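Need residues for this backbone.
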């Protein structure tokens, strides 16, 4: 048997995502995005955060702040300075990764505003007895717990809560009704696909949440990282096709006798920076767990990063 070495050799055409990496914005300064929205960019660029975390401000005078961001003094001070003379009434958290929620604590202390979110890190999985990874903001507890369909009203703005587990089990998107805009957190990003890290990350839930967003009529999405997505339905549809194609690549690997995740990653992600392979391994694990649950792959137990996987037929 000849081992496959390149993704192209798998014979699966991966749909081209219309990604947008042409992003430019100053740090620690408010940028007008729309009549109701401003953004302040945190100085925390990385392979996972792109140019940094974009904290969004909704409204004028009495405002909501979406994802205060990482625990960086410069960023917190920039938010406070931007909102001098205004009142923060709500601090909304999409999810509890360390680039999204930690600054909520000092920002709440400075403004007196209450925090709103689905729950603490892993909240969507703990009821199932799942012990989630320690990489999140384990200190965050929302003052007000939100659920799918909840509506938050402010002065001149209305936000609908859209529960979208997958990237994390406590991930929420927030829909601004007045502008038919969705703050998509990390669930949908225009510059890259989203990393799904089990056990808190869940590919089956991610697919379901993508389908949920695909059925909405949002006119624009504002991810926490990168530029707005101006044709969200088209982009989300492409994401769904991209993920299905990725699973077809994994199926080909299994049929060719590549049974361990590092072997698959070396082939499927042969054309990307090897430094990104550990993160890619987590997404492949999430895909395999989804494939095991739907009967397209088999392994011992539920499957881990060290398991041996086989094609189901």
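Answer:
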């Amino acid at each position: 048997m000849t081992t496959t070495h390149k993704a192209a050799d798998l014979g699966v055409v991966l749909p081209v995502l219309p990604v947008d990496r042409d992003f430019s914005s100053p740090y620690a300064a408010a940028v007008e995005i729309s009549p109701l929205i401003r953004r302040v960019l945190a100085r925390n660029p990385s392979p996972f955060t792109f140019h940094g975390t974009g904290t969004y401000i909704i409204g004028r005078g009495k405002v909501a702040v979406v994802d205060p961001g990482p625990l960086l003094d410069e960023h917190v001070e920039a938010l406070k300075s931007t909102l001098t003379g205004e009142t923060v009434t709500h601090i909304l958290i999409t999810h509890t990764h360390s680039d999204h929620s930690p600054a909520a604590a000092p920002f709440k202390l400075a403004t007196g505003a209450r925090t709103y979110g689905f729950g603490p890190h892993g909240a969507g999985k703990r009821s199932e007895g799942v012990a989630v990874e320690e990489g999140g903001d384990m200190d965050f507890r929302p003052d007000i717990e939100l659920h799918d369909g909840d509506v938050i009203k402010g002065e001149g703005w209305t936000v609908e809560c859209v529960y979208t587990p997958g990237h994390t089990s406590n991930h929420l998107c927030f829909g601004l009704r007045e502008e038919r805009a969705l703050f998509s957190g990390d669930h949908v990003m225009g510059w890259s696909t989203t990393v799904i890290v089990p056990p808190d990350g869940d590919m089956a839930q991610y697919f379901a949440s993508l389908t949920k967003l695909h059925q909405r009529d949002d006119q624009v999405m504002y991810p926490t990282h990168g530029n707005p997505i101006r044709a969200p339905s088209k982009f989300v549809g492409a994401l769904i096709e991209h993920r299905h194609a990725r699973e077809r690549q994994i199926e080909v690997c299994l049929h060719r006798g590549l049974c361990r995740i590092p072997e698959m990653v070396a082939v499927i992600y042969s054309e990307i920076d090897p430094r990104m392979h550990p993160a890619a391994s987590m997404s492949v694990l999430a895909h395999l767990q989804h494939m095991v649950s739907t009967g397209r792959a088999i392994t011992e137990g539920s499957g881990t990063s060290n398991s041996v996987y086989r094609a189901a037929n």
